[in-house]
Task: structure prediction
Amino acid sequence: MSIRVAVAGATGKLGSVAVRLIEAADDLELVARLGSRSPLEDMLGADVLVDMTLPAVSPDIVAFAVDNGMKVLVGTSGWSADRILDLERRVAAHEGSGAVVIPNFSLGSALGTAFATVAARFFDSIEIIEAHGEGKVDSPSGTAVRTAELIGAARADRGPVDAPHTDQRARGQQVASVPIHSMRMRGVVAQQQVVFGGAGETLTIRHDTVGSQSYEAGILLALRAAASETGVTVGLDKLVDLGIAEPNGEPPRPTVRENA
Result:
């Protein structure tokens, strides 16, 4: 039996990729494409809503889907910890509901964030530099925000990072004490660098996206997972086996394959 899917933001860059993948998959059925002028009721009847819209409208679209009994896959940027907390409350109020929030569908990006989280416990000077094309309307990116939040959580016992002169605007926006610097420019798809500084050394964890193909396997994996997940799951790293033992003894997640 196929999973019935509605895509909000179906004509956007990421939404159009999702539409193409859904139409080509044997186990997925595209039942609605929503644009900026589409009534939200157009998504009714879908099992899963895929939200690939804009940060300003995404929460209302996702809330409508959850309230109407749909599972949700959120691929829209701008979902901070506060927004996710609100989503957790809404999902908890509807038995059996579930939402998967993916700041970045690239496996390489998920790995970069995981590596940065590990390194965060060993350095006190940490900053993030991220770049996207000029059409991206939000900054910092959702990936950078999540990376900073995970770095902050990993350093809970160590304390905030050492970030001097943060009163100066050029020092970036702080998230969980980590300065984030955003570039929006032509010729760039997506790039993130997490730079760690220590005594006599620096470590840089960098990921570059050069084409939308890098998102395809992650979109399909997350969409299929969203159909059965309950509660709120954040990050592609939660859906794949990164080789890190789970403290609760759960079996490893399926690994993303290039030809998925």
